[in-house]
Amino acid sequence: MRRWNAEREALAQRIAAGSAFARGKIVAAADAGALIEAVIRPFDRVCLEGDNQKQADLLARALAGVDPAKIHDLHMVQSGVVLPEHLDVFETGVAKKLDYAYSGPQAGRIAKMLFGGKIELGAVHTYLELFARYFIDLTPNVALVAAVSADRDGNLYTGPNTEDTPTVIEATAFKSGVVIAQVNEVVDKLPRVDIPGDRVHFVVEAKKPFYVEPLFTRDPGAITETQILTAMLAIKGIYEPYGVKRLNHGIGFNTAAIELLLPTFAERLGLKGKICTRFALNPHPTLIPAIESGWVEQIHCFGSEVGMDDYIEARPDIFFTGPDGSLRSNRAFCQTAGLYACDMFIGATLQIDLAGNSSTVTASRIAGFGGAPNMGSDARGRRHPAEPWLKAGREADPDGLPALRRGRKLVVQIGETFGEGNAPTFVEKLDALALAEKLGLELAPVMIYADDVTHIVTEEGIANLLLCRDKDEREQAVRGVAGYTEVGRGRDAKMVQRLRERGIIKRPEDLGINVLDVDRSLLAARSIKDLARWSGGLYRPPSKFRNW
Amino acid sequence: MRRWNAEREALAQRIAAGSAFARGKIVAAADAGALIEAVIRPFDRVCLEGDNQKQADLLARALAGVDPAKIHDLHMVQSGVVLPEHLDVFETGVAKKLDYAYSGPQAGRIAKMLFGGKIELGAVHTYLELFARYFIDLTPNVALVAAVSADRDGNLYTGPNTEDTPTVIEATAFKSGVVIAQVNEVVDKLPRVDIPGDRVHFVVEAKKPFYVEPLFTRDPGAITETQILTAMLAIKGIYEPYGVKRLNHGIGFNTAAIELLLPTFAERLGLKGKICTRFALNPHPTLIPAIESGWVEQIHCFGSEVGMDDYIEARPDIFFTGPDGSLRSNRAFCQTAGLYACDMFIGATLQIDLAGNSSTVTASRIAGFGGAPNMGSDARGRRHPAEPWLKAGREADPDGLPALRRGRKLVVQIGETFGEGNAPTFVEKLDALALAEKLGLELAPVMIYADDVTHIVTEEGIANLLLCRDKDEREQAVRGVAGYTEVGRGRDAKMVQRLRERGIIKRPEDLGINVLDVDRSLLAARSIKDLARWSGGLYRPPSKFRNW
User: Fold this and answer.
1) Given an 8 Å threshold on Cβ–Cβ distance, is B137 in contact with A442?
2) What average pLDDT does this structure show over B175-197?
3) With an 8 Å Cβ cutoff, are B433 and A404 in contact?
4) Residues of B whose CB is below 8 A from A192
5) Around B69, how many Cα atoms within 13 Å sit in the side-chain half-sphere?
6) How confident is the model at residue A488, as a pLDDT?
7) All domains in chain B, ordered by first residue
8) Is there a contact between A480 and A463 (Cβ–Cβ < 8 Å)?
9) In chain B, which residue's Cα lies nearest the Cα of A405?
10) What angle do CA B509, B513, B515 make, to 5 degrees?
11) How many Cβ pairs within 8 Å bridge chains A and B?
12) Which residues of chain B from 123 to 142 reach within 8 Å of chain A, CB to CB?
């Protein structure tokens, strides 16, 4: 006779074992390690919550401290590899296999550990893809999550940083997995219920806030004139002609510059209400001037941003907020919105090849993908029209039967021809390919594939890849905006000139932009202090961004 | 001075107006209409919950009964147009504009009303796309949802049919919208909490269960030998060579036949454990024999299926279930799983054209899309490898640089060459194109586009479109499996023969299948009663499927 409730029985045993360290569901911070040792079993799939923002840091430390003789060979299935502890568990043998999405701050160390064979790599995913697998073949046996507070029944309040928590818990709790939440405090009554208590088995009282990285804060003071130029090109050459209203902005100074040019440069172009009204976006501080100037109608967020909570709470017409007044973020829904309800994704990258493939992986750093592959891909399941999407579709396929012609998501890569450390952004061959060879990966870690990219913007101009009709045109369009990089210098000048005549390449002067007019005074805010001022004092920048 | 809390103030007013008909949050069924008239305002965006399964039927009737002088010009943003009341509101002027995803049972009437100009059509979406827009530009002002029970704080228990409810409520409640839930009963303590009460403003006690359509029940007694043949072809010619483990099956007798051949035909081929282990799928009764035979490891569900609840509850190792023991379904996550974590989508359609575009829209019926466009599209954001996906990618692009070659989702259309009423499945031009012209749509309602379809299976054989190298080969591959339809008879017999020699077309004999062996005795269950027997009496078919 086959048993059909092995998982349920295991759950009961795990809860019984963990209960030795709990009063009801509540566990003292000092007992977190003992709790984890009691609940987790070797070879378990474990989701340790952490993405590019919030971190279940106390539980990460506790897991890193367990006895590898008792707990070993775990398969970690988690959004972010961000804290040192996320990799320590692989050094000690507590964990063995890894499936993840983002590893920005640990990009160097994770690369070394992969080369050294310390980690058995499953795959590097985009967030929504990893969430999808939680329901099919990477369902966690144990989830270690973070919330602001809990009541004694285990109901959780995540506050503004809801992020991945509901998704992780849904996949775990409803498949007989154990959910352990660290909370800043246990209270009698929660400001709102983000997670019902019957999905939460243990609550560890951390007595201090979980760690959150202010990843989406860009100091306007650090925005260069070159970045302002690329932002002006994007607004005049892409946002305006396509009429992009629903969009996502990646992290970076180029898109921060776009946000700060909306109430100035874009407003003078008469674009208010015609572009940038609805976002799938974290609460970027650099968007405050545009919001305050009445540009923005609605924003749905993946997570919150450090220092933005009071501002968001005072702007409920713009943001999604709960009955308690504070932000309700949700990474799974915001990624879905970015995929299916946005007409543009614009972001930066580290390397672009001659076809337009791009990657943030370099020879020594594996940063992961985050949300870019999802939002920076053409959603082929999309069935609703919108003018930017239809126009892009017409450009890509001018001769197609109109009724059978699909639209296209605008996927824009924006950056300077030379990036950090003067490394060229344009390369003949992505470092990602060498890495794939070295690690024996079946797929090179390409962030956005060439066939999804529609435009490349640099200080030299815009290349519209939708209008390229063959591989050669495409290569010359890429070379034609690659400036003084080797790739740029390798251009066929005559062909680039013809591409320019056909409007495939646009220079600043083709768009009526005088490079001499580019000036930091165009930015609606020129410092973090300016942003705080725009917000009426509601934005409270983290101390590392304050110099006053 | 701009106000930033207009929505919050409107919410307070709406709740105050509705509270006249409530005790606390509880409203009597007889007062549902008065409550709705008090809460909804003209031109509101309203989500009336209903998909292809569960329906907020009491609230649908109440909305259809409001005074159009008071409530008019609503913009309905909802998954399903299924009940007559969903269209009645457009006849009376209560509603004006419609954005939706599925309209199977109302396909004829909705077509007539669109032709008659009674409905202003936004777009026909796939479910996940509509959910995405709830967070960007179709956020409901009011959501009318359905649950099994509520407590006096408004906490909701959705039971096995959770489906769209968490998504609809999240988008509405956290953007200052009003949430009204009909429940079968108000209780003191819920079996589990599916929706926290602070997101629910009013609870209408219906005193009887909401309507659920048993849409995924297929009587094995109605499966034809032709359908069994297509199922055998699919298993032998696609499931086996690609090794498809993670997948979704559409609704229909062909895929039901596949499910019923797993413990018989497929088991004899030695495929147990090698195919069909993990599904994004509703609890199809026809999957019971495969589950009982140990074929299936895990299933995540969009919704439940009438009569399957006790069976699911007794099989928690397979299904996602709550602490109360019953199924936890979730359409948004299951669609996400179907998009990103499955290697195959296989389903039926009404019409396929020469390129491979398909649609369920005919001249007089607009059935909507449901989940097919999402799950039947290549997820270009996907970054994790799996053998079926990699093999499909190699077939599509044999000369590509391996490290830069993406995999491909297997998207299979299966059906007989002649469908219901002897209408040919294969056509020169989809009716959807004529419809788009007639209604002035910017996009024809194509369900799955040619460039996403990888295989077509009919009783004549399998066409592998991945292996076609140009438009002509593709057309002849389609014609080559189109049987005696006009499209099939129009084939270039020599070219079809060459395609067969190259393995692009496979006939039953090419796969070692003798058409004379095809017999209903191959089905693991040949009646609904057989399914009930396989389940040990746990599956309780709805009365319309019982003849004993």
Assistant:
1) no
2) 98
3) yes
4) 196, 198
5) 0
6) 98
7) 11-212 (3.40.1080.10), 220-529 (3.40.1080.10)
8) yes
9) B443
10) 90
11) 270
12) 123-126, 128-129, 131-133, 135-137, 139
Residue of A nearest to B431 (CA): A403
A317 and chain B in contact, CB less than 8 A: yes
Indicate if the pLDDT at residue B491 is higher than 90.
yes
Q: Please give the pLDDT value at position A547.
A: 79
Neighbours of A263 (CB within 10 A): 22
Indicate the Cα dihedral angle B187, B188, B193, B198, nearest 10°: 100
Neighbours of B402 (CB within 10 A): 15
CB contact (8 A) between residue B300 and residue A129: no
Segment (H or E) for B461: strand B461-464
Residue B375 CA neighbour count, 13 Å, CB half = 34
Instruction: Find the CB nearest B294 among A2, A314, A374.
Output: A2
pLDDT of residue B494: 98
Inter-chain touch B280–A136, beta carbons under 8 Å: yes
Indicate if the pLDDT at residue B548 is higher than 90.
no
The DSSP 8-state label assigned to residue A29 in this structure reads G
Name the percent of chain B lying above pLDDT 90. Answer: 96
Q: Cβ atoms within 10 A of the Cβ of A75, count? A: 19
Which of A124, A135, A132, A133 has its CA nearest to residue A101?
A124
Q: In percent, how much of chain B has pLDDT > 70? A: 100
Asked whether the beta carbons of residue B336 and residue A132 sit closer than 8 angstroms, the reply is yes
Q: From the CB of residue A426, how many other CB atoms can be counted at a distance below 10 Å?
A: 25
Length of chain B: 548
Taking the CA of residue B515 and the nearest CA in chain A, the distance in Å comes to 35
Give whole-number Cα distances, B271 to A184, B239, B268, B294, B345, in Å. 50, 9, 8, 12, 19
A376 interaction partners in chain B (CB closer than 8 Å): 381
Chunked into runs of 10 residues, chain A (548 residues) has average pLDDT values of 92 98 98 98 98 96 98 98 98 98 95 95 97 98 98 98 98 98 98 98 96 95 97 98 98 96 98 98 98 98 98 98 97 98 96 96 89 97 98 96 93 96 95 92 94 98 98 98 98 98 98 96 98 98 89
A133·B323 Cβ contact <8 A: no
> Do B403 and A334 make contact, defined as CB atoms within 8 angstroms?
no
Q: Evaluate whether ipTM surpasses 0.85.
A: yes
pLDDT mean over B391-399: 97
pLDDT value for A405: 93
Task: Provide, as residue numbers in chain A, all residues whose Cβ is less than 8 Å from the Cβ of B170.
Answer: 328, 330, 333
Closest approach of chain B CAs to the CA of A109, in angstroms? 21
Mean pLDDT of B75-84: 97
* Residues of chain A positioned with their CB less than 8 A from the CB of B321: 174, 176
Q: Does residue B547 have a pLDDT over 90?
A: no
pLDDT tens sequence across B224-241: 999 999 999 999 999 999
What span, in angstroms and rounded, lies between the C-alpha atoms of A446 and B483?
A: 43
Interface list for B 442-501 with A (CB within 8 A): 442-446, 449, 451-452
**Residue B189 near chain A (CB below 8 Å):** no
Q: What is the pLDDT of residue B362?
A: 84
| CA A265/CA A253 separation, integer angstroms | 17
